# Entry
Amino acid sequence: MVVDGQSSQSLALAAQALQRGDLIGLPTETVYGLAADACNAQAVAKIFKRKGRPSDHPLIVHVTDLEHARLFASDIPDFAKRLIEAFWPGPLTVILPRRTDVATAAAGGQNSVGIRCPSHPIARQLLLAAQKLGVWGVAAPSANKFGRVSPTTATHVGEEFGESLLIVDGGACTVGIESAIVDCTRGQPILLRPGVLTVDQLSVACGQKVLLQGEQFAPTANAPKASGTLLAHYAPTAKLFLMDKQVMEQKLAQHKDAFPLAIWSRSLLHALSRAHSDKKTKLHWQQMPSDAAQCAYALFAQLRAFDDLGVEQIWVETPPLDSGWEGVHDRLRRAETAGR
Ligand code: TXA
Ligand code: MG
# Structure
């Protein structure tokens, strides 16, 4: 059931559901979450089951502020505090050492915990209402089946989990891709998953260079597991291919309606106008925003919309390599790999 997040009655209902140990669909500014009381192991087990996610893949715990983050984290290094001061509430998750015996199931049994303080006004009201009922933190992965594209509207969540889930409608997510995740457990900040915050912004805020997982900083045996960083993730049903404008033009000229196809490109394609003049075309084109934030906002909804058209392939023009595009690049690359 989808309920209006603007209504205080709906928020009370949702907070009570969390207190009871039930799941809800939670709107945040990044993507919708499949949420449960982070300290209730049985409720958390329902998330893993419903999502089809292995139970050793840790979930992010959502809190209202730093004070509540301290209930879950045993230590917050200074550089993490600076990140938190700069970007909370907002699209940043910090991985911190976990207090023993707190949110063990939510953390997938790891000795660290991912914590985020969302800025979405309805998420905040809901977290506060749940807090009054004794729910200190809310575990929530993105509200999609494991490996699929994250939902950015209440309707998407309904498509993933059906009407039996209580889904709080908070409108379309304004950020559109998941939070940036910075591991703060290894003495220096390491970016595990890019989001809309750039590495430069993160580095400036925390006063030291934020390293990139796998590049400057090789993953080690004790590195935390982040399933959102699996190479094959965020997959639409259609096969997705990234290519630059020239390759797209060439392939399109040869395509000749061989199969239903969707194209998301910033450039207007010469071959496309010819294909479009044929009314019987099985070709769908949408213009990709030329601004990184707008592109992130549109990304997952666009992939879902292409899937709904029943296309076999989605061709996406490779986005610019400029700073600010890391998050969009990352999700598209994973979507491309997942389809292989
Ligand atoms: O924007 C977001 O982060 C959204 C909204 C709902 O808050 N949530 C989200 O959750 O994307 P999820 O579960 O789909 O992705 C969370 C990622 C996973 O890759 C998980 O492995 C990683 O965070 N993660 C969580 N706790 C961790 C930990 N203790 N150590 C390492 N990675 C962790
Ligand atoms: Mg996810």
Notes: The chain has two domains: 2-212, 239-338.
